[in-house]
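Hi team,

Below is the intake form for Trafficking protein particle complex subunit from Eucalyptus grandis. Please confirm the fields before the structure is written into the shared record.

FORM ID: S-0412
PROTEIN: Trafficking protein particle complex subunit
ORGANISM: Eucalyptus grandis
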Amino acid sequence: MNTLDSYILHTRFMLLHDSRNDDGIKSFFQEVHELYIKIILNPLYLPGSRIASSHFDTKVRALARKYL
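The structure came back. Fields below:
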């Protein structure tokens, strides 16, 4: 069974998963949020634009492997 969790601020992070590990899901969202904050604090980032950073993508995938 798949579950959809979300973490909503001004930006939505949504995760479709099979995990039942609520603590892991919470940790995943918290760390993704920290990565997102680092991106939007970059003066070269245009608010509302797509995040095209391969570093961001790699880090999010690593967090998914770690927590889910």
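SUMMARY LINE: The CA atoms of residues 18 and 54 lie 25 Å apart.

Thanks, M.
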